[in-house]
Amino acid sequence: MDSSRSRCCILLLVLFGISIQYQCSASGIDTNQAVLLFVNASEASARKIPDTLFGIFFEEINHAGAGGLWAELVSNRGFESGGSFVPSIIEPWAIIGDDSSVIVSTDLSSCFVRNKVALRVQVLCDIEGANICPGGGVGVYNPGFWGMNIEQGKRYKLVFYVRSEEPINLSVALTGSNGLKKLATTTVIAANVSNWTKMLVLLEAEGTDPNSRLELRSTTKGVIWFDQVSLMPLDTYNGHGFRNDLFGMLKDLKPAFLRFPGGCFVEGDYLRNAFRWKETIGPWEERPGHYGDKWKYWTDDGLGHFEFLQLAEDLRALPVWVFNNGISHNDQVDTSSVLPFVEDILDGLEFARGAPNSRWGSVRAAMGHPEPFDLRYVAIGNEDCNKPYYLGNYLKFYSAIKEAYPDIKIISNCDGSSKALDHPADLYDFHIYTSASYMFSNANHFDGAPCSGPKAFISEYAAHDDAGNGNLLAALGEAGFLIGVEKNSDVIEMASYAPLFANTNDWGWKADAIVFDSSQAYGIPSYWMQHLFKESNANPSNSLIASAITWRNETDKNEYLRIKVVNFGSSTITLNISICGSENTLQRSGATKTILTSNSVKAENSFTYPKNVSLVKTMLEEVSEDTDVEVFENMDVGLLPYSITSLELLKNPPALWTAATASDLESSF
Ligand SMILES: *[C@@H]1O[C@H](CO)[C@@H](O)[C@H](O)[C@H]1NC(C)=O
Ligand SMILES: *[C@@H]1O[C@H](CO)[C@@H](O)[C@H](O)[C@H]1NC(C)=O
Ligand SMILES: *[C@@H]1O[C@H](CO)[C@@H](O)[C@H](O)[C@H]1NC(C)=O
Ligand SMILES: *[C@@H]1O[C@H](CO)[C@@H](O)[C@H](O)[C@H]1NC(C)=O
Ligand SMILES: *[C@@H]1O[C@H](CO)[C@@H](O)[C@H](O)[C@H]1NC(C)=O
Ligand SMILES: *[C@@H]1O[C@H](CO)[C@@H](O)[C@H](O)[C@H]1NC(C)=O
Ligand SMILES: *[C@@H]1O[C@H](CO)[C@@H](O)[C@H](O)[C@H]1NC(C)=O
């Protein structure tokens, strides 16, 4: 540990409505310290939290979607990833057989106009004659994204398009990674596929292997073309195509919003590779897919504009659509030529919100969602504020969107936290990636932010520089920062950690909240830290008292006072808490304490120890006397070194005589 960090006064309780007195020695490294925490829980010092304070940010980075949340098992299903010219490489597809038995190539004979590349498999061997096919036949296999996770008893939907002048007799199989262990097999026979023909096969696995592959083989001489080969598990969230375990980890965070689909992914290194929503909708077979040049991988865009909106709806989160504003990392469209880009985005808004009989709303309806999506936020670009055409382009988008959809809130890329923006906006974007200690000390960054005008959207925050693969230290720094976000939630409307996901096989950016491979996943300490903030989105009964919030469990209707404290130092701190001003009494019994800590700030989680650093909840014995009091005094709570502690105190139901003020109950703490 950096010793300068371990002095006594590193403890920062960032809060108002809370006053703190430090009693610490000059060195303080080994001595226990005592700190007084006074919580004034009176109504007058309470403030409502924004409904949307904490959410999530999904970017297609680290194979977060392709080979991640999007459950498609075939990688490069349309054979387009090598580019639209042929011959092209077909990786990760690979050939089964040798030069004497099979020749595999690509041509432009597909029936799909936006993705013309098809796979041509010329089988040289046969079932009889001089050149007999090897056992099982020859053809191709796809290993998925570093192995397909096939699980016993589960069913998988295989769809592919095929053409041949001869009758076909294909053997289709899911096998272990060496091709030997058969997990599911079937035969596809057709007498006449002289036209492109769609085949649909349901496979049920008879074994489990997280590193499986899909094989397509033939033992008959002739030429067979394949295109758009998809293998989807039937078991996805709501049948919507999201991998269940990863979806569940997002849902558990109770995100108030979902920002998508990037990030730099939205801009691209070059405009020609930017995310274009229109290329990602409609039947999946017809989507061209695109190369994400910033993070250097191809996506078939199965997870497209519609699926992102569906994901937000399934998470009960408000979608926040970040769109390309005619600017990439290396090229940009002059404001005088940006109009087609503006019209394209208006179409995208109509796709999300238009009536089912509108031009683009009807495309959405045809995809199975006649009701509009609840799209209320858009961001004009990502990190583009200083680009020459940003402001000009921004204003074109801004006025066109406000005219068509006056209620949509528009997010500017320019930082309005230190000085007022020189252009209209509802929110301004703010990104912070730094060291854990700098993150911690940035808890007060927004103390001086303008109170009027646009609110802050901290759409990307993370302790990055010294986070390792995602360690405790980073989570502590971020927790301190987030307490500052709560405290300043009169000027901050939204905040989200970044990035959300990493596939361990393409860990291009560290740290990431959730780490996974084909079959398993774990949350880093920062993921668990965020759980302590998930009640800090207002529902009607929540209010803010500094880092103390009150929140209501919508299931059992209980109300709680939650006090969060980060100890960013190496000493144990005794916190002596007094709470006054509560119109409703607090119950002495049933209080809990939830801690995130470890014996090392470098501690991380892993597949083997997914919860090495995670939340531990215990009863708070110090308040176990069963008398109810209106004032909590001198409640001592030990704060472990390098820890986040969350105290949860149950409020008694309001007494009858307070009924006169029942209309004020939402702020009654
Ligand atoms: C608590 O805060 C309220 C409102 O700011 C104030 O009127 C009251 O005096 C405070 N109570 C104490 C004990 O400081
Ligand atoms: C299909 O091919 C398999 C060998 O791969 C063979 O056993 C089977 O008889 C063939 N079926 C037909 C209908 O030709
Ligand atoms: C296959 O179908 C096409 C189109 O209907 C037809 O023209 C062709 O003669 C058929 N081929 C055979 C071998 O039956
Ligand atoms: C084959 O495709 C052609 C051209 O698209 C079409 O006219 C014909 O009806 C198709 N034949 C069959 C049997 O589907
Ligand atoms: C809310 O209450 C229900 C019922 O007691 C409980 O199962 C659930 O865990 C509670 N939720 C939270 C977030 O504490
Ligand atoms: C678990 O955390 C401890 C520190 O508490 C650390 O020493 C250890 O390496 C971690 N184990 C794993 C498997 O990450
Ligand atoms: C907590 O602080 C109060 C006020 O300073 C003091 O009177 C009390 O003795 C302290 N309690 C403990 C247990 O240290």
From TrEMBL:
The record's listing under SMART domains reads:
Alpha-L-AF_C (SM00813)
Major site of localization recorded for this protein: secreted
Task: Enumerate the UniProt keywords alphabetically.
Answer: Extracellular matrix, Glycoprotein, Hydrolase, Secreted, Signal
* Signal peptide bounds: 1-26
Provide one Gene Ontology biological process annotation: L-arabinose metabolic process
| Tree of life domain | Eukaryota
Q: What is this protein called?
A: non-reducing end alpha-L-arabinofuranosidase
